[in-house]
Design goal:
10 strands, 3-stranded antiparallel β-sheet, 397 residues, alpha/beta, 7-stranded mixed β-sheet, globular
């Protein structure tokens, strides 16, 4: 049974739904462990997550169809593109733990005509706004789109290295490993604007270096970034990695500008970021690293960016209208929730997730959300998963 056929069987067994995936020979780092026995910890937690979701949404046919579609998407994904649908399942499972306090609805299609002053409307978006989840609180609704916290340069380099290692094996008969020195403080926007377009050129230079048997190659991008590549013709490779949560927060401070198309004008809009070691090895969760990084990144997004009058399109190609400012995006974002998925190292459901909730004191569409207003909705046995909860009430300057 292939990994895809096994996934189709899992969907049928747990949800009683038939989903057909065309490419039966596809595989990736998410679905492969589900077809290896005994199941490893990641696969064990994944299967339990699906069982919980099947039980939670047993009476909601539309939600179950969407959930099984996302599981199907996992089987269709190549390389790391499974991170998106996987993150949606993680976020849905996390929020569903607190469903005794609020109903979670999945997916939410909102008519753009009812949100004429929203950033997506101002940006020329037509007909609808598609948002993953809605937390239906007693007196409010919180809409949140779910994103996988990918490291953009990590993804680019993984694809480059895979290409070069395949080239070395097939064309030169060499087994090699390639790495690159520390990138954790590289500016998010600069990487997007330079590295993506220069990928093919970097590949050609690395092919030349491998053909000549070199162990090092330095590359300077058009935008001034410098990368030091190491090439080993053995099974051992060592690269330099230096981590600072504050440097990373500075590097990533424009990341949330990319998500303006999901922000509403008359309801609370939040972004949920899901991190898993499979698709982000950059954050290390050592010595409270992630907590410091997430808090610092949120504070920059809410406090620093809300003062910036420069056009959002300068930092993200998602904007067509140059009248939309960085500050507009910042002030329309009610909060950010980071979820660390601990599926690869936790045996226990109550420690499966680590969540960090940060609320924007400069949100403009309604009264800003506060800890006092929200914390009552997260009081049960699973509240131990919430590691930090801050509304920056005393830190807004």
């Amino acid at each position: 049974m292939t990994d895809v056929e096994n996934l189709e069987k899992i969907i049928s067994d747990i949800f009683g739904v038939q989903k057909i995936i065309k490419n039966k020979n596809n595989s990736n780092a998410c679905i492969a462990p589900l077809n290896r026995y005994p199941l490893n910890l990641f696969a064990f937690n994944f299967m339990n997550r699906l069982s919980r979701l099947a039980e939670k949404f047993a009476g909601d046919k539309d939600a179950l169809n969407t959930i099984t579609d996302r599981i199907k998407n996992l089987g269709e994904a190549t390389e790391s593109s499974w991170a998106g649908p996987y993150s949606e399942l993680v976020a849905l499972d996390f929020y569903s733990q607190f469903s005794e306090f609020f109903k979670v609805s999945y997916i939410n299609i909102l008519p753009i005509a009812e949100h004429e002053k929203s950033i997506p409307a101002l940006n020329g978006q037509k007909e609808k706004i598609d948002i993953d989840l809605c937390l239906n609180l007693r007196h409010d609704k919180i809409y949140t789109d779910v994103k996988s916290f990918n490291c953009i340069h990590q993804l680019i380099f993984e694809r480059i290295f895979e290409s070069i290692e395949t080239f070395a094996r097939d064309k030169l008969g060499k087994t090699i490993l390639i790495g690159v020195d520390n990138m954790s403080s590289l500016d998010y926007v600069t990487v997007k604007q330079n590295l993506v377009g220069e990928r093919k050129y970097i590949e050609e230079l690395l092919k030349m270096a491998v053909t000549e048997g070199r162990n090092f190659m330095t590359y300077s991008s058009k935008g001034g970034l410098q990368f030091n590549f190491k090439i080993e013709y053995s099974s051992a490779l060592s690269t330099v990695k230096e981590y600072s949560p504050f440097a990373m927060a500075e590097a990533y401070k424009y990341k949330f500008i990319d998500y303006g198309s999901k922000l509403l004008d008359n309801e609370y809009s939040m972004i949920t970021m899901v991190r898993n070691n499979f698709f982000n090895t950059e954050t290390v969760d050592f010595g409270n690293f992630n907590n410091i990084f997430y808090r610092s990144l949120s504070r920059r997004t809410f406090m620093e960016l809300h003062k910036m009058r420069s056009a959002a399109q300068k930092y993200s190609s998602n904007y067509k209208d140059d009248s939309i400012r960085v500050s507009d995006v910042s002030k329309n974002l009610a909060g950010i929730i980071f979820i660390d998925d601990n599926s690869m190292r936790s045996k226990y459901y109550k420690s499966l997730y680590s969540a960090y909730i940060y609320l924007n004191p400069n949100y403009i569409n309604k009264a800003p959300l506060t800890i006092r207003k929200l914390e009552k909705y997260f009081h049960n046995d699973f509240e131990v998963q919430i590691k930090d909860f801050d509304d920056f009430k005393w830190d807004n300057y």
